[in-house]
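Report of the visiting student (M.T.), summer placement. My assignment was to run the structure pipeline on a short list of targets and document each run. The first record concerns Sporulation and spore germination.
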Amino acid sequence: MKRIALAAVLLVLAGCGVQPTDVVLAGKAPDGIARGPVLYFVTGEPGQVRPTIRETGRLGTVTEALRLLAAGLTPAEGAAGFRTELPFLTTEQVSAGTPDGGIVTVQLPVPPSTLSALASTQLVCTAVGISAMAGANAQKLMVQLSGSGEVGKPVLCPANG
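After the run finished, the structure tokens were exported:
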């Protein structure tokens, strides 16, 4: 009985017509499918960070999300009561690496010590949020801000705790 079943399986597999092919190049892997990245802006008094989705039609990368954050608020975000604590940052000078050992390094054009606590939190939580949407564990992922020769200590996003 086992031989008949095995023969039947082999016959079906042999007759299915699938031929081997060479590797098919399909281009760059997608950055993610989402309405857009989650950016953290300041709201309320005395000031807390809250997430908002920037409608771009795709998740994008951590660097792209941080550059959107650095570019400032849209009129709709401002009308919703959001504000930013970030100083003017040249968006092209803001970047992030991929998580390495549970730490994402964010490169800034300014020393991290010149940022307010809320500005740092905006950057940290945005980097963690995008990394989490791409599959990282947000509860354990830390962000290290770096700029102008200064490297901050790795921190967690306080909005996750």
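Helices lie at 2-14, 62-71, 75-79, 117-133. The chain has four helices and six strands. I thank the supervising group for their guidance throughout the placement.
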